Amino acid sequence: MTSADHDACVADLKRCIALSDNMAVLDAGSGTGALCLALVRIAGLRITALEPCSAMNALLELRPELRCVTTVQGFCDHADDRQHFDAESFDLIASRQLANCLFDPLAAFRNWYSWLRPGGAVVVMDGLFDRHDWSGTWDGVVDTLPLSACRTTATVPYLLENTGFRIDFVGLMDHTNALPSTRTQRYMVAATKPQG
């Protein structure tokens, strides 16, 4: 990804969420650090990356600009994954291109709810994928992942709301979608864990 990709992601994030100094942020499903590379552009964030694949964690840790990011190896979409973090550990949980790969999105969203402080926010960024987008190595996976081919922005907010979140924003990622590198329309959902 280019610098323009990261700048567009930050611009899209700032449309729907307030980012402030010293926020504890979790990048859920961080991969090799694409979202982290956008987040480090915002001064003062304390970023943790959660990723199940040790090889991807290793690649993230090799990036000099991500030395400030703490990495944790693990999944987030099973009840047992809640043990990765204490309750109310984060002010913001963000994911990019993860929701479509969750085996159990409700379990993930319940874990995220637990890990967020009251008043904390979650931001889900994903693509509006079709069945044919899951080909090659991914062939057949489309029928095992509930959010893999959702051509609607309605499903993720519905699931978040059913796990206790208040929906604050649902819309297309205008800055990201304007880039020539974006082949599949991207959308984002921002939600808040209510106070008390």
From TrEMBL:
Instruction: Determine the domain of life of the protein's source.
Output: Bacteria
Pfam families documented for this protein? Methyltransf_23
Q: What is this protein called?
A: Methyltransferase type 11 domain-containing protein
- The scientific name of the source species is Novipirellula caenicola
Native organism taxonomy: Bacteria, Pseudomonadati, Planctomycetota, Planctomycetia, Pirellulales
